[in-house]
Amino acid sequence: MKSIKYNLAGIQIIFGEDSLKELQGELKRLNVKRPLLVTDQGIIDAGILKTVKDYLYIHEIAYEVYCGVKSDPLDIMVYEGTVLFNEKKCDGIISIGGGSSMDTGKCISIMSEHEGKILDYARSTLNHKDFSKKGCPIISIPTTSGTGSEVSQYAVITNAETHRKTTIATPYILSDVAILNPTFALSMPKDVTAYTGMDALAHAIDAYTYKTTIEYGVEISDICAIEAIKLIGNNLVNAYEHPDDILSRKNMMWAALLSGISLNIGAGESHALGSMLSKYYGISHGVSVGIPLPYCMEYNVKSCYQRYADIALALGCEQSDSLKELAYSGIEKIKEIMQNLDFPKMKDIIKNISEVERFAQECADNSCCVSNERMNNKEAIMEVFEKALQA
Fold it and tell me: What is the rounded average pLDDT of the residues 80-104?
């Protein structure tokens, strides 16, 4: 058996409705005297940034703010944030928001210690550079329950010129601290609850059905993924229908964190298809990976009925004497969840399968397909898109 590498560094995880009270102590522990707050307009409008700023003011902690983050962050946002970080002589990052803010914050941190541009270090860049050390300390405060970026060694940044999403992958961008306060998630709009929840589900399923985990088993990834799937199956629809249910919010925050840990093993085909929807149609990440998820599963289920059956049981499907039937019941359960969430459909975005021709080969060549060695040809990509369009 070959060796398996899985990074899970020492991230201090603080969870609870009073978790923000620990921020001062963590800043002191990390010797951060002037953090840069990285966030977006939605967090400002929700009053969450004010809560953090008031806390820092009371404790006499100086700070600067970069609030230029937008959904699916661009490389220029990392550049702007890094320039501000250096000009104001900041020495740490506090990211507040969803995956976009956390990914941007992690990249500002690493670029505070490296030359060039962030995309010079992207996996898809020919002859890309490698990071040589960690950047400044990172404290991540997620306000959504989807990306798991607070415990992920990945960041997704979009090229402003080509609109192509690129992955920054290094343990050097892992957070030092993750502060999870479920009361912050109460301000999420219903659609964001749905989109981020399906994002977390896609992460967990991609991780549990990743080629390496199927062939060899990676216990830490498997355990986190299955527990995340259980939590999402039991709580996502309720959080969507009853946004003020704090227990569902807590459980979804745990689910996002666990799925983020599991995804450190690597992303699967739903992310490859999702990257095409984001690039060519401007679709947000949670929607782009959620829409193709059940159809990627239908294509790949034959690769390991047992794992897809495990997913079905985690989602609450009834046991069956037929492993195959059980595996497929899980896929139908996901479609049911998406229907209850009023989730967008592929036909809302793509009108005709002929549109897929222009990027099908590009999708097949995506690292998320190639690394899985199943949906790694144009014909398979076309087939999955067509099934999704027919739904």
Answer: 97
Superfamily of domain 190-390: Dehydroquinate synthase-like - alpha domain (1.20.1090.10)
Q: Which CATH number fits domain 12-184: 3.40.50.1820, 3.40.50.1980, 3.40.50.1970, 3.40.50.2300?
A: 3.40.50.1970
The amino acid that residue 48 corresponds to is: I
| Strands, sheet with 92-97, edge to edge from the N-terminal-most edge strand | 12-15, 177-180, 138-142, 92-97, 35-40, 64-69
Residue 321 CA, chain-centre distance (Å), reads: 35
Beta pairing partners, 94: 37, 139
* Distance in angstroms (rounded) separating the CA atoms of residues 368 and 160: 21
Task: Return d(Cα 43, Cα 327) in angstroms, integer.
Answer: 39
**By C-alpha distance, which of 267, 200, 268, 211 is closest to 235?**
200
Distance (Å, whole) CA 77 – CA 325: 47
- pTM, full prediction: 0.91
Specify the amino acid at residue 268: G
Contact 251, 138 (CB under 8 A): no
> Can you tell me the distance from the alpha carbon of 135 to that of 60, in angstroms, rounded to the nearest whole number?
24
- The pLDDT of 175-203, averaged and rounded, is 94
35-39, 47-51, 119-123, 341-345: which has the minimum mean pLDDT?
119-123
pLDDT higher at 390 or 7: 390
Classified as helix, coil or strand, 270 is helix
The greatest distance separating any two alpha carbons of the chain, rounded to the nearest whole angstrom, comes to: 65
Domains in the chain: boundaries: 12-184, 190-390
Is pLDDT larger for residue 375 or for residue 52?
52
- The rounded mean pLDDT for the chain is 93
How big is the chain, counted in residues? 391
What is d(CA 201, CA 216) in angstroms, rounded to the nearest whole number?
A: 22
Q: The tokens 């979804």 sit on which residue?
A: 252
Q: Closest by alpha carbon to 70, among 93, 97, 45?
A: 97
